[in-house]
Amino acid sequence: MFPDYLAPLELSLVGRARQAGILAVGVHDLRDWATDVHRSVDDTPYGGGAGMVMRPEPWGAALDSLVGAGSPATLVMPSPAGTPFTQPVAHELAGRGHLVIACGRYEGIDARVMTDAARQMPVLELSVGDVVLAGGEAAALVIVEATARLLPGVLGNPDSLREESHALSDPVLEYPVYTRPPVWRGLAVPDELLSGHHTRIAAWRRAQALVRTAARRPDLLAALDPATLSPADRATLAALAAAEPAAEVAAAPGADAADGTPDEPADDR
Ligand SMILES: C[S@@+](CC[C@H](N)C(=O)[O-])C[C@H]1O[C@@H](n2cnc3c(N)ncnc32)[C@H](O)[C@@H]1O
Question: Residue 135 C-alpha to ligand 1 middle, in angstroms?
Fold first, then answer.
């Protein structure tokens, strides 16, 4: 209902991927498939209750015209009632050729639209977080950006995908990052990062990643395969377990997000 909301898809990483021909994005206005004089797309809910529900007819007509018969499209329905949109799901979507993202508004879309669409294509209802947005457009931006950066050729340096939060091969949070100057507002970059000693730097980063993950996302830590933990990892985790959690986080350089990290790295990750 708000195609202009998706204008950011012309910018930055996704915009450049489109210009490079790696990715094609089409934005459509649901009202183009409304049939009445007011171009209405909503109606009152059966069973009563607050708010309006998106009518099935415009959605059915829109999907019929956007997804040709036999097309290998996947329908993505952003919804706070969907399954979580996570990095593994983004990887899965990146492997699918054609995604159609249906942005809901009001109280959502008549459930028969999903049932009908599932007769001809895979349908995924995905939530971008345990929050309720006013519409699916912001969720669609999240889904497109997270998926597009996984396509070959989109990121300047594909190594970025190996060492970042939620990486498939190592699903923990990324360590804190720093750039010049070495001291800023009295805050020094940790010595390890200035040492030029690769093994020391790697060890520091790994320990910081575990400290952060333990403090902020213990669920991720609990889900790690113990067989993937090195002796050094075990030592870090044992030290964390033995200490007061809050004190550990405070002691971790850069554990606070407000640590002077630049807004957007050069490769626009
Ligand atoms: C106000 S919400 C509807 C919420 C719905 N009544 C419920 O409680 O589940 C309107 C639209 O915003 C989108 N939306 C809201 N929160 C979302 C989330 N966490 N993830 C993905 N999409 C979301 C969906 O497209 C949804 O149809």
Answer: 6
